[in-house]
Amino acid sequence: MPEQFVVPQFLDTEAKIIGPITARQFLILLATVLAEFLIYRIFLSIIAIIALGVPVLAGGIIIAFVKVNGRPVHYIALNMIQTFRKPMLRVWDKTVDTRTLKAQLREKVVKQPAPVIPKKRLIEKSRLGDIALVVNTGGVYHPDE
């Protein structure tokens, strides 16, 4: 009977560390709280705290908890950045004209066959092993070849 192996399941589920919060969400929220604290310590004005702190807090919560099509928002944002960095218009730069291509296709390239290197036996077999192979293969194996 073949051995049984445990097949991992739920590979796309992140491990929860604090209640329903995953490690990724915890680190995002920790960075958001740190940013909020820095805003509080730097500006000390209630208007500045509200103007800067509320959007930072909202952004941190959105990045930590919101999912689009089952994927976290920061993956979507990274994919958008990668897409916008690529050129939108792709142009085929045809520097070779058709005459040159036709001339290259007409040229016949003669390939020389690779030299045949005879195989060396790594281990010298006994005559008994050759006879056993001839018997086992029904005469198809020839030890002289």
Which terms would index this structure?
145 residues, mainly alpha, 5 helices, 50% helix, 6% strand
Task: Break the fold down into its secondary structure elements and pairings.
Elements: E1 16-18, E2 21-22, H1 23-43, H2 46-65, E3 67-68, E4 71-72, H3 73-85, H4 98-106, H5 127-136
Antiparallel strand pairs: 1-2, 3-4
Helix pairs in contact: 1-2
Q: What does this molecule look like?
A:
This protein is mainly alpha-helical and 145 residues long. The protein has a domain at 16-85. 50% of the residues lie in helices and 6% in strands. The protein has a two-stranded antiparallel sheet with strand order 1-2. The protein has a two-stranded antiparallel ribbon with strand order 3-4. The radius of gyration is 35 Å and the shape is elongated. The relative contact order is 0.05.
